[in-house]
Design goal:
Layout (H helix, E strand, L loop, with lengths): L4 E4 L2 E7 L3 H18 L4 E5 L3 E6 L10 H11 L4
Antiparallel strand pairs: 1-2, 2-4, 3-4
């Protein structure tokens, strides 16, 4: 897991900024595909015109960070830039 992730309360959070809206949307779609494959879904906020905030927590585990969150964060980090 890269240093783009930080702990906020009981969640892992990553804020990303992209060159434009289309690139931010492409990233969101790529994250969605990885999340579907793993059946573990982050909260995704697309804001501004080029910013994305990802929040990972395991709702089934009472809203805490689990190994599934760390694994998904690593998989997201492995997506093409």
């Amino acid at each position: 897991m890269s240093d783009t992730w930080k702990t906020e309360g009981d969640a892992l959070v990553s804020d990303r900024q992209f060159a434009d809206f289309a690139t931010a949307m492409a990233f969101v779609n790529a994250v969605g595909a990885v999340a579907e494959e793993r059946n573990h879904h982050p909260d995704i906020l697309l804001h501004g015109w080029n910013k994305v905030r990802l929040t990972l927590t395991t709702h089934d585990a009472g809203g805490t960070v689990t190994d599934a969150d760390h694994a998904l964060a690593s998989a997201i980090d492995a997506l093409p830039a």
